[in-house]
């Protein structure tokens, strides 16, 4: 998948996304691809939210991190 570079003149501003879970990460990617500067803020030491804990609930030998 190729992405076109957005010229600096087209940048619309900046956005802060609170929460580094699946929805927060996807929102940050979508906003960044739309031309916004994005600040992703997560309170814990790792991103991934509840998804990072699912390997303990549904062990499938797949790494969630």
Question: How far is the N terminus from the C terminus?
Answer: 23 Å
Percentage of β-strand residues? 15-25%
The rough form would be described as elongated
Main sheet attributes: strand count, strand direction, barrel closure = 2 strands, parallel
Strand line-up of the largest beta sheet: 1-2
Looking at how many chains there are and whether they match, the oligomeric state comes to: single chain
Radius of gyration: 15 Å
Low-confidence stretches: none
Helix-strand makeup class: alpha+beta
Helical residue percent band:
10-25%
Order of helices and strands: EHEH
Q: What is the residue-averaged pLDDT? A: 79
**Helical stretch tally:** 2
Topology, number of strands: 2
List keywords for this structure.
single chain; 65 residues; alpha+beta; two-stranded parallel ribbon
Walkthrough of the structure:
This protein is of the alpha+beta class. It has a domain at 13-44. The protein has helices at residues 22-33, 54-57; strands at residues 14-18, 37-41. Strands 1-2 form a two-stranded parallel ribbon.
Brief write-up:
By secondary structure, the protein is α+β, with helices and mostly antiparallel strands. It has helices spanning 22-33, 54-57, and strands spanning 14-18, 37-41. Strands 1-2 form a two-stranded parallel sheet.
Write the layout of secondary structure elements.
Elements: E1 14-18, H1 22-33, E2 37-41, H2 54-57
Parallel strand pairs: 1-2
């Amino acid at each position: 998948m190729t992405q076109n570079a957005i010229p600096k003149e087209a940048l619309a501003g900046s956005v802060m996304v609170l929460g580094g879970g699946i929805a927060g990460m996807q929102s940050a990617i979508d906003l960044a691809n739309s031309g916004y500067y994005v600040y992703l803020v997560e309170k814990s030491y790792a991103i991934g939210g509840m998804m990072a804990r699912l390997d303990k609930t549904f062990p499938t030998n797949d790494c969630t991190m």
